[in-house]
Amino acid sequence: MRHYRELTLEINNEQEIRSILKQMETLKAEGWKVQKSLKKEYAKDNKINEDELVSFISPYYKNTKPKSEKEVFAGVVYLGFVDNSIKILDIKSVLKGEKLPVHLYNLIFHQFIKDVIKPNANLFRNLLGTIKLNKKKPEIQLSKADKKSGKKLLCIAVSTEGFNVFNKRLKRPIHFIERDGTGEGLFQEGDELKIGQKKIEYFSPNNIGILLSIATKSQLEARNLLHKIKRRQNLANPLDNIKESSEDICNYIEQIQTSIVFTYTTIEAFVNLSIPDYYECFEIKKESGVYYERKYTRDAIERLIPLKTKIKEILPDIYDTSAIENEKFFTNFALLEELRNKIIHQKSIEHTDLYKEYFRESIFKICNVSNELISFFYENCEKDFTTNPIWPWIDGKENILPKSTFNSKDFQVVGSIYD
Fold first, then answer.
1. 372-382 per-position pLDDT tens digit
2. How many whole angstroms separate alpha carbon 245 and alpha carbon 237?
3. Cβ burial, residue 127 (10 Å; 0-12/13-18/19+)
4. Are the beta carbons of 57 and 84 closer than 8 angstroms?
């Protein structure tokens, strides 16, 4: 599902590269064929030595794109020897060698890596090199003063200097900077509601921040309860002793389960809200022996693609990050998902062994995975994505604020909270 742009296998040994290219011509992958005649033509047109080039024809795929002129498509993948590396040089349509649309180019590229490169990783010394992704960056959704909704932007400081976070459950303020550099301001989104006859004004909460706060508080309370359980002295009366132990154990289970469910929900909300409205991804599937492309819009991604896949493939594509599955916390996410599913989809009311898993030393690392996952994106996107306002406050990242330029002439003062 990732939108691949470039693949480089850095071998740094000319003799070995030539040997690998020669061996590649003997590879067998379902539906893919080595094409020597097209290689010869491409080498001639691009003034490349034939022994420094290899080409593969993809299977034919059914084109399901609406109003498509062609019912099927296929591509030719050209790999060559460049700067002591093996690189994908080009992918062209089998039909008259014409240029492929971007999404079809990506599909064939992705399928080539999946079907030909990865199954033969040993041939490339397990060097899957550098994979560059497309860079569709989510745009900031700026709040505007709206008399009907009651939402407004309140200037809470004239600069970021000396600003202190006063509630981590709220949306982060936006740091507006005058385009000519002559002014700046820190603006916090505000809202209001009526309870009976009383009007209440407040700063807008960040729902991810609320979920994260619940998970964090439950985890802290669980730690305290576990400490209490370990230190508790047995009572003289055995029955009273079991009753008190049961009280402590149940309290602990409540807090751990709350932390597990809300940690998972925090991640789910963070992932789904990160997907821009315009975002699409494509996947090649096979049904009754026929390959076809399937398009996923934002809504379809949210509903149909598993959370683990969205974390592993969709978010790194959107935010242009390094591979998240290589991070240590990714294993803990898989464990978190397993524990959460056992709570939500418990198959037998008599099955209580799952509670024993809550007393392992690793449970608190598992419950902290939402912080680690969100921190990963902060660290990978600090320069390019400081303007994404959906992110919650994370410990150690308080100095990273959403930023946007502005023209003071476009701003309108609608009132003061002190009036």
1. 999 998 888 77
2. 12
3. middle
4. no
